[in-house]
Amino acid sequence: MKESALLTSLMLVGVAFIWGGTFIAGRHLSVNTPPLLSASIRFLIASVTLSFFLPNKQNKSLLNKNTKIRIFFLGLTGIFFYNICFFYGFQFISASRGSLIVALNPAGIGLVSFIFLHEQIRPIKWLGIMLSLIGVFIIVISKDPTALSMDVNTWKGDLFLLGCVACWVTYSVASKRVISEIGTIHSVFYSLVVGTILLGVTALSTNQANLVNILELSYSQWFSLLFLGVFGSALAYVWYYKGIEKIGATQAGVYIALVPVFGIILGMLLLKEPITLPMIIGGIIVILGIYFCNWSKY
User: Fold this and answer.
1) Side-chain half-sphere of 4: how many Cα atoms within 13 Å?
2) Average pLDDT in the 232-239 region?
3) pLDDT (tens digit, 9 = 90+) per residue, 96-131?
4) Rounded CA gap, 148 and 165, in Å?
5) Which domain holds residue 183?
6) Number of folded domains that form the chain
7) Measured between alpha carbons, how far is 105 from 135 in angstroms, rounded to an integer?
8) Membrane-spanning residues where (predicted)?
9) Is the predicted pLDDT of residue 148 greater than 80, yes or no?
């Protein structure tokens, strides 16, 4: 393997490790930190950090009214609603379990792109989508197979994390038009700014973002917020899109299969989370599904 190819692989493995770690940080923060406060600080840090990676030249004329509306929609779905589901969801669910449910993203993106954008899906990708759906179903019902008809509160955490999937699929499909107009990094940055403003206003209006709550944040909570903001929401995106530039979206996407693997390992090591046999079986099926979703050979 050439040195440049090795560095690209290591960079993408690093991205998967960071994104796997975001579930651990999210779970840690959700225990004692107001969700909207966590989300607001995370993306304030992320917006500032990502601003240092913006290309020097940006054609302002590309930001017409329609593009601005689309950017607002991206910030609303991919940042605002996603993080409400993310931080509220981890109040009820383990980091390991959450990382496996959110691993449904590639299958969801492929399915929605097929339905609304009429993108062609090859047989191997259909197999990946079906495996991902089956794997997540196994993971969700493994919590308590007899409780499927019980109160929705039983599945609150799972439903919030499935909300994350819905938000991210919507964001990913809707962002394709914006990325083609203003580029990837600017698209991510502007949606981060919009999401940060929406989260901040909501946190202030619900009194979650107040001086007392901010001063009560511990060192470990600040570390988690810095990790989420600097690495999980800024640096990892830069590395991931650099990886796409080097080896293409399909090959880079295969590395995403490592995200739930790292999420499970870190959950076991740092949070002492138990892993059940159905979670292992469902996780393996999901990871295979992700791999097939990103495999373009057939």
Assistant:
1) 5
2) 90
3) 888 888 888 888 888 888 888 787 878 888 888 888
4) 20
5) 3-53+62-293
6) 1
7) 13
8) 36-55, 71-93, 99-117, 124-142, 154-175, 187-207, 219-240, 252-271, 277-295
9) no
Which residue type sits at 284? I
pTM of the model: 0.86
54, 70, 49: which is closest to 185 by C-alpha?
54
Show the tokens assigned to 174: 């809707």
Those residues with Cβ within 8 angstroms of residue 38's Cβ, 6 or more apart along the chain or in another chain = 26, 29, 30, 87, 225
Q: Is residue 223 part of a domain?
A: yes
Cβ atoms within 10 A of the Cβ of 59, count?
Answer: 10
Q: Give the chain as a 3 state SS string.
A: CCHHHHHHHHHHHHHHHHHHHHHHHHHHHHHHCCHHHHHHHHHHHHHHHHHCCCCCCCCHHHCCHHHHHHHHHHHHHHHHHHHHHHHHHCCCCCHHHHHHHHCCHHHHHHHHHHHHCCCCCCHHHHHHHHHHHHHHHHHHHCCCHHHCCCCHHHHHHHHHHHHHHHHHHHHHHHHHHHHHHHCHHHHHHHHHHHHHHHHHHHHHHCCCCCHHHHHCCCHHHHHHHHHHHHHHHHHHHHHHHHHHHHHCHHHHHHHHHHHHHHHHHHHHHHHCCCCCHHHHHHHHHHHHHHHHHCCCCC
Task: For CA atoms 71, 75, 76, 78, give the dihedral sign.
Answer: positive
CB 36 within 8 A of CB 196: no
For residue 189, tell me if it sits in a domain. yes
Q: Is residue 298 part of a domain?
A: no
Q: Looking at the domain assignment, is residue 282 inside a domain? A: yes
Q: Range with the lowest mean pLDDT among 23-37, 179-193, 245-259?
A: 245-259
Task: Answer whether 152's CB lies under 8 Å from 92's CB.
Answer: no
Amino acid at 240: Y
